[in-house]
Amino acid sequence: MEGAAVAEGLWGLADHHEKLGDIGKTIKCLEAICQSRISFLPLVEVKTRLRVSALLLRYSHNVNHAKSHLERSLLLLKSIPSSFDLKFRTFSLLSHCYHLLASFPPQRNLLLKALELASSVPQDLSAYLWSCNFNSQLANTFIIQADFPSSLSALESGFLSASHICYPELQMFFTASMLHVHIMQWTDDYSVEKAVQRCDDIWQTISSDKTERCPGLFFYNELLHVFYRLRLCDYKNAQHHVDRLDQAMNAHSHNMQEVQQLRDELSSLDHSLSRYDLPSRERAALSHRQSQLQDRVNALSPSSSTTANSLEPAFFGNMDRAWTERLLLSQSPIDGEWLPKSAIYALVHLMVVLSGRPKGLFKECSKRIDSGMHIIQDELIKLGITDEVREADLRHTAIWMSGIYLMLQMQFLENRVALELTRSEYVEAQEALVEMKNLFTRFPTILQASECVIEMLRGQYSHSLGCYSEAAFHSIEASKLTESKSLQATCQAFAAVSYLTIGDADSSSKALDLIGPLYGMTNSLSGVREEASILFAYGLLLMKQQDLQEARNRLAKGLQIAHTHMSNLQLVSQYLTLLGNLALSLHDTVQAREILRSSLTLAKKLSDLPTQLWVLSSFTALYQQLGEKGSEMENEEHRKKKWDEMQSRLAEARGSIHHIELVEKARLEMHNVEDAQEQCDVTYGMQASLDIPESVGIEGPSPAQYSSRLVGLDTGKRWGKRRLSRLCAKNRVCFLYTKSSLLQMGHQYPDYNIREYIVHKVKDLGWIPHEQESH
Q: What pTM value is reported for the model?
């Protein structure tokens, strides 16, 4: 009796301090029970340790302390025959701790034991929910180890558990997660297409009122569809999903602003109503207004947001975030999110950039890049990541969250480099590339997959600045830094173009050595971007070999791909310029004039000075053939103006202190990182490559070599709530698979869930059934 009274007293005192927001005193009250010499019942100690662990995970970074409490609780629970809910809760939170500490083998073994227990108890609602929880976390651990088949098996088991309890949102979560895994591994088009169709079918079973209550699930599903379409270079159908995402983001942002205004007004009303001398008539009017405002807030909020005790899993920065800052994947009791709202918003901006840049919508793309970068900078500052912070300075528990935003930042910078190179703004491209380089040297493990992208962009920058030998070097180095056959082919095609631009016998021989094998493997590559770059380089080689008819066939095929599948205006312009020069070589002046006019129109739209100069040089040759002296002189005058503008921009870029370090034939140097191997294991799959077209230059037919760029190639991704990432190098589609608190189902204790960054992640759902017991 004495122990029970002491425990009740300390629990009550802990509740009091927690309501006041004094978490330190709350934890001291609870730990007094664990450290007391008074004998307590095992259940009392277990519940106390669970609550302490939940508070530590939610409000601090002391994961090891929380883990110790949970391991002790698990030992105590072994002697108790029932109390399954407590056992499941302990399993789930301890799994979360192991994940935060990157102890994946122990986590996997723990989850297997949890699933074994869940299958042995009466199969009621609670048991099925816990099975969903554990299967989602187990799938996440498999994803980190790149064991895709095992991950799919765990997710399928979770889907079956969700089906038993007829929970369509939960079914949709597992179905979308399976699509995420299929996109990550992409073994064949049919399997991915079937996963997409399955998502569409399940989504149709969810009523509209429920989808409105779980906006995170909508964003997750739509983003996966965008990743899928971009992977296929199906920009037309991808645009439909991008538009829906953009509209949903704007609507959600507007609603949250309205909610904040309503809550501010409610706070003011509460203050007014607290006055003891308030007249009864005025009090009644204010009370009525208060009721109206609360009804409006409830209408705009997810059902779970009104649950005061609902705790968010500690995964995203261990911060207590308001529901207005979350995009929930489902209603209570699951709750949870895929990525933080800010990361989702940044990702939507990135998708707008990816879909708009090939079309030359540079103004809108620049605006979205700025918006996305602003969001990311704010979040990095909240995480304590300033210009002085390096990878070795990060807390282990902060690696996942910081990795999400750092990966996104690299994606925006990559797009900025490509955009600025396309419109011949070399200084701006240089600045963005230097920023990428500096980020990589500060966070080499988290951003490991970005090294390939940086080397590729260094090659594009070097080519644009007329450093063709250096451009070839960096492209070849980039091909060595990826295991993706498609990306290797793209890099080698870039290198071949640079070699052909040099033009001497040795360089042409090196280009031939690259292009021959590449063209032979075209049919085995998975993307049209790779095929377009190879056909471009091959057509240029054939022109230099004077095999004009075969060159026309290859270039015509590449042009069709660039126009029909990629909608890449710069690549179309460059293909047209090559075909116009080819027609000129065949003395087909009528066709040459029409083709070159189209190319010049596109180049002007893109502000692409190298291609404009190349086309104007071709027009000079055309007018010489036709004997149109007046047109030739007028054209040459215009060309010289463009030439002077081009040389001014090149001189400014070459005069920068960063120019030499970017073009020099040397790989990036990085700072040493403590525990590099361990962190390497943690960040496996954070492979950064999106579908971002890159630039490649080619040689014009005039005496002066005008660089042009082949834009329209890409890069990768990842999965889970914290592993943002996996825009994997293999699939090169911005996949943030992070593991954040996907489904959290708990009132008193936070839980961890899976959805991790696959662009991304499979997610780690932390679902916990409602707390049935008091303390």
A: 0.82
